[in-house]
Amino acid sequence: MSAPAVAEATATTQYTVIAADNASVAEATAAIGKAGGKVVGSNDAVGMYTVLAPQNGFIEKAGSQARLVGATHKVAIGKAPRKERPGNAEREAQQAAKAAKKGGGTKPATAGMDPLDDKLWGLTTVRSDKARKVNAGDKRVTVGILDTGVDASNPDIAPNFNWALSKNFAPDVVDIDGPCEVASCLDPVGTDDGGHGTHVAGTIGAAANGFGVSGVAPNVSLVELKGGQDSGYFFLEPTVNALVHAADHGIDVVNMSFYVDPWLYNCVANPADSPAQQAEQRTTIKAMFRALTYAHLKGVTLVSAMGNNHEDKGKPRTDISSPDYPADTAYDRPVDNSTCWDLPAEGPFVIGVSALGPSLNKADYSDYGLERIGVSAPGGYFRDGLGTDTYRSVGNEILSTYPKKVLQEEGSVDAAGNVLPEFADSVFKQCNAVGQCGYYTYLQGTSMASPHAAGVAALIVSAHGSKQGRNGFGLEPWKVEYLLYSTAAEHACPNPPLVSYVNVGRSTEFDALCEGGPHFNGFYGHGIVDAYAAVTAHAWWEHH
Q: What is the spatial distance between Cα 31 and Cα 29, in angstroms, rounded to a whole number?
């Protein structure tokens, strides 16, 4: 792609630029040049450009070009350290994949339960234990984990990990992720230095292999879409590129347990923000709306965590956490619901998921609200069970797969790979007959609820998909959404509908009003996802 040259001496910063709706590549490139930028990369599917431009003034100049929506800072990528750690993780992961027993055939596979599944109250809450006796998922069904990576060396992940489709879109950023592990700063596929993505992946589709834990859909294929930094940040460009990759490669379901940094809410023209900050947020909104729409139209079912800010998404409080990058730059900004979006949860075609505890009460931290909720699912609630012996116990959270390396860095597993005695109730290690070991730990969040729903969505594609679909097998997202909603177990609002969490040690800011009726409300949406009802449903279009 040709681009107007700009003096290299001034091109000191990278930006992500979004073209206007009907701008051609030539028009967008010319407009970028007029604003003083040089195109160094592009994603034509969504009109997104990576641009080198001067450090000051470019965002304002780009915003004044009619053929551009605007620009936002692309986070700088640091240089690799001189000394690299040995990159054995990918080799280990591939060896584990080869050693794992591969499931073959195209008939609906059934599955049993695994040794640690008795700790997975979420699995039985969504009735995956019953569903898998009918349909445990189809290997042809692919679930993208748009997250911090996936540790494919875990023997519960290895059998279902799809190496061919997995890709890393998020190079390490030294100031937040620490020194790069490899020269390219692009971690190998099948690794996860954050842990979050591996936990999400296990809940969706850990194999039912008589070992460790099993996932909601234990026989589907897991695709790593690394769009998140090791440190847990998710920036615009890697996220958009991951969504476009999922769309272009026929991935059936994508789980998104994050929001796009640095803004919790991206606002069109928030008076609290500078003109440049407003332009950056408009750029993020346009890019995410385009990427989500593109993925939906290409057949991807989009599932997202609603968020952990204990607020009604239709009545947001003042945002006190943005921007969260660079560090210590946040300030108080009132949020106008009609012109601000939490993305991807509030983006087009996205199924929003709230989090529940074992009691099926809404977790204290979980966002909610009629405007954005789709369904609810187990996400963990440490403070659940007030008045019982389970109150404030880790068993109220969600147990899933986790990388040994991250547990070692966190101090719960020693250098020899053994769980330290004081963590025996919260971290587990299991080894198979050939000496491969998997590690497991508890987390809570809407990040843990969303993969329960994504797993059920994958089972819906498995049970109701068509060989006439794209890539030989699939199911249109509107059908997946219809079945997910219509088979969810309806759950009425609590009585009284205003819930206080003061008795479990929370401030009155956590008070939550559940609005709506038994069929649809702000806490549960259309209901709690139900894997068994989903795989045994008779969809009306299957009889016409």
A: 5
In the DSSP assignment, the letter for residue 491 is -
DSSP string, 189-227: TT--SSSHHHHHHHHHH---SSSS---SSTTSEEEEEE-
Q: Provide φ and ψ at 322, rounded to 5°.
A: -115, 150
Distance between CA atoms of 347 and 313, rounded to whole angstroms? 12
Looking at residue 11, what is its pLDDT?
52
Encoded amino acid at 394, one letter? V
Q: Identify the pLDDT of residue 544.
A: 59
For 482, the token pair is 């219809």
User: What is the reported pLDDT for 150?
Assistant: 98
Interhelix angle 196-205/446-464, nearest 10 degrees:
40
How far apart are the C-alpha atoms of 470 and 140, rounded to whole Å?
Answer: 12
Q: Domain 89-534, what fold?
A: Rossmann fold (3.40.50)
What are the tokens at 245?
Answer: 């990759």
Name the residue with tokens 């099993």. 214
Sequence spans of domains, the chain: 13-73, 89-534
Per DSSP, the residues of 263-284 read: -SSEESS-TTS-HHHHHHHHHH
* E strands present in 58-195: 68-73, 142-147, 167-168
Instruction: Note whether 174 and 78 are within 8 A (CB).
Output: yes
**Cβ 111 vs Cβ 213: under 8 Å:** no
pLDDT at 413: 98
CA-based R_g, the chain, Å: 23
Query: Angle at Cα 374 formed by Cα 368 and Cα 131, nearest 5°?
Result: 120
| 454 three-state secondary structure | helix
* pLDDT average per 10 residues of sequence, the chain (544 residues): 42 90 96 97 96 94 96 67 35 46 55 95 98 97 98 97 98 92 94 97 97 97 97 96 97 97 97 96 98 98 98 97 93 98 98 98 98 98 97 97 97 97 97 93 98 98 80 90 98 98 98 98 98 95 74
Q: Which of 189, 184, 192 is nearest to 78 (CA)?
A: 184
DSSP assignment, residue 250?
T
What is the phi/psi pair of residue 201, to 5°? -60, -40
Residues 480 and 280: their CA atoms lie apart, in Å, by: 34
Contact 458, 220 (CB under 8 A): yes
Instruction: Please spell the DSSP secondary structure of 379-391, one letter per residue.
Output: ---TT-STTSTTT
Q: For residue 104, how many C-alpha atoms fall within 13 Å in the half-sphere facing its CB? A: 1
Fold designation for 13-73: Alpha-Beta Plaits (3.30.70)
Q: Are 408 and 415 in contact (CB under 8 A)?
A: yes
Q: DSSP for 470-536? A: GGG-B--HHHHHHHHHHHSB--PPPSSSEE--GGGT--GGG-EE--B-SSSBTTTBT-B--HHHHHH
What's the rounded Cα separation, in Å, for the pair 402 and 441? Answer: 6
Shortest CA distance to 396 belongs to which of 451, 368, 367, 355? 355
Residue type, 498: L
